[in-house]
Amino acid sequence: MTKQELAREIWAMANEMRGNIEANDYKDYILGFLFYKYLSDKQDEYFASKNVVKDEDKKQYLVALAEADKKGIASIIHKCKKDLGYYIAYENLFSTWIKNYNPGDDLSDKVSTALNSFERSILEKYEESFKDIFKDLQAGIQKLGNTAYERSEAIWNICNLINKIPITSKQDYDILGFVYEYLISMFAANAGKKAGEFYTPHEVSQLMSVIAANHLKGLKNVSIYDPTSGSLLITLGRELKKIDKNVKIQYYAQEVIDTTYNITRMNLLMNDVHSVNMFAKCGDTLKEDWPFVYEEQKYKSKRTDAVVSNPPYSLAWNTENKENDPRFRYGLAPKSKSELAFLLHSLYHLEDHGILTIVLPHGVLFRGGSELQIRQNLISHDHIDAIIGLPSNIFFGTGIPTIIMVLKRSKTKKEKNNVLFIDASKYFTKEGNKNKLQSSDIVRIYDAFSAREDIPGFARVVSHEEIKANEYNLNIPKYIDLVDNGDNHNLYSSIFSGIPHNDIDKLSDFWSTFPTLKKALLNDNGKNYQLKDHDVEKVISNNEEVKKYLSDFNKSLESLRTYFKKSLIDTDLNVIDLYNVYQQFLDKIQSVLKSYKLLDYYQAFQLFDNEWTIIENDLKVIKSADNKNSFDTIRELKEHDSSTISAKADKKLVSKNTTYGIYQTPVIPFEFVTKLKFNNQLEALEINSNKVEEINARLEELLNEVAGYESDVVNNFYKKEENKLNFDEIKKQLKNLSVVAKSQPESVEALLVEALSIDKEKRALNSAIRKAKLQLEKDTIQAYSKLTDEEAKTLLCLKWIDPLITAISKLTKYKIENLASELNRLDKKYIDKLSDLEVQIIQTQNSLIELINQLEGPDLDMEGLNELKKILGKK
């Protein structure tokens, strides 16, 4: 099960379990217990490194702890607190709850005791990281039920659910973090407007982080800050680590809401951010300035290399005594709309070389009053670098149009005295009732941001002079014209038929790629075009230039396949750098597509990215294993851990029709091995399965024929209510039925005898198929662990590379099909002359008049019909 599948399963079960509890409240319980499991397992892992194994009883555990340090148990507990910041007693460990739970136990009391004990154990220097972090969980336990039994049952259900998430390796921590963030996003999506409005969708966070991280490329020590803290810091941190895994990052986070503040701290800690690099504060960002650092015996305002933020929209704030606050020297945002106040605060805490990416409602671009004054100052001091318009309906709980604004304290020569506008509002995919940026959309936007060049209908660099001329109105439509892709009608062609020149000119990329194709398809009479042959697909497919193009592209794909295999599968997968390989593959795809300008690189990128998700998950599994030979991980079979699979999956495990269910395969699914090693047996199975389908079709025909007979014979053998044959009764009467069938081949008795015969054949085939499948599964399991390195490589090619090459290969096919489709559409649109249509109308009117003349009826009706004939006659 991939981390994505596990996350979806955990969410589905959690959502079912919460019953009538609000999603936003239930979130506190799920995420709180999830974090507590993380801390417990982290401590188990810490003591395991000291040779203390957890799965002992309490007495043995304490003895082992004492033996782990010559100075005794108190000493090692102190070391644990010093290194981790806390200590959890044996009886309070998450794994102890799971191991020792008995129905009837008062878990709510145990949990309260454990959380209080944890709070007391926190070492002073770690209080900023851990103090009150379980406040919401502790306060909410009583809401889980009216009685101790109800509360305990609810807690057990949550703990048992969370226990499905494995934490036994670095890979599993990646899974835990992913599940945690996935749950946050899903709770936000289901929490309604009030609770879900300010959650930043991961794709928006990703775009902001890509922009910020690439700006900071090359820095070895980086500080990042989010004054309205959520998931943005985590995403930016990951992006920085992708670019340079050795970069050292300090995280600064502030949030006024306790719950969100606690979630931020949990999220940072679970993403392996050590307490010494985490500076978090629960406070009102606008009311009290923060962060500060203590230097030269005094506190100074802390500036960071990057600030990322998604502040609340239309939040009222207190502007009293803020006129002299240096953060707001460019102006005070309106009392009822604090977005620009958050922006100015963020800009104030930015290093001169730094970058700020902030999500804002689009109203800040054009509203007047003090917001206009702030925009004027930001422009005159050259801080606004770019404005990116996002698709509508992209945030949970609100449909407000939003933008990302990018700001800098100092710009490069190319960036000075201008603002880059990007309209990305049309680039998204639908997911449920929300719009969502795809990976290719993020890359398209970042490429435009990086290139800083005009792209019709998408991006434009606008000078400060033009912005001043527009009175500092920064609304994107003022600077980027919408590209009109509407279906306009040409007057001449609508009257005389034929395809207009301008419609054919829009397909110029095709004509330049295939110089002879245009003449092969079209006649030009000087005024417009006519199709030479209405079988457009045939003309295109027979064109020699098209054939060569497709042939050359297939050869390029084969070279791409070879490159992918050599650069990935033929290397040591244990030490491969995921980010570098990802970038190398993209560069290679881009270099290949440069020779085929018809193809859209961003479409190819999306296809690649879809497949890369699978490859990346597998590579993380391989890299996190202890095997020196990466192919040993691929050959490995593990029995399912019953504590980490769902009840639905448990039922599959005991099924008598499969042996696969008791095993999990880390990388290669069983069916790949079966196809490689036992293809002949698979084909034999397919032949028998096809025979069964043919028999079922014939049985359906026979059933319909029998059902059509009306006789006592049929009533004895046909169950009308169930619409099926009674084969038991047919067997009893087979001898008599066979006699009639032999003498009367067309009789219903003959149909019944045939039905019984082929049903018997079907039963025998199904039995043989079941036995063959079970044997094939056993053979596959035996072959799995005996795979050679070369066979493992072949299987990786089948799983990783073949789907990617197949997906990219379809780009040319779709492109050429689109050409044929467009020409057919244009031909159909303009195929009729207006004069021909006029003749058709007259003919239809005359036919209608003739039909009216044949009608008879009451006088009033006939008078009405005569008037209708006059109207039609005039026309």
From TrEMBL:
Residues 682-712 form a coiled coil. Its EC number is 2.1.1.72. GO terms for molecular function: DNA binding; N-methyltransferase activity; site-specific DNA-methyltransferase (adenine-specific) activity. InterPro entries: D12N6_MeTrfase_N, DNA_Adenine_Mtase, DNA_methylase_A-5, DNA_methylase_N6_adenine_CS, Restrct_endonuc_T1M, SAM-dependent_MTases_sf, T1MK-like_N_sf. Residues 6-156 form the N6 adenine-specific DNA methyltransferase N-terminal domain. GO terms for biological process: DNA restriction-modification system; methylation. Residues 172-482 form the DNA methylase adenine-specific domain. It holds the Pfam family N6_Mtase. It is an enzyme of class 2 (transferase). Keywords: Coiled coil, Methyltransferase, Restriction system, S-adenosyl-L-methionine, Transferase. It catalyses: a 2'-deoxyadenosine in DNA + S-adenosyl-L-methionine = an N(6)-methyl-2'-deoxyadenosine in DNA + S-adenosyl-L-homocysteine + H(+). It comes from the Bacteria. Belongs to the N(4)/N(6)-methyltransferase family. This is site-specific DNA-methyltransferase (adenine-specific). The gene is hsdM.
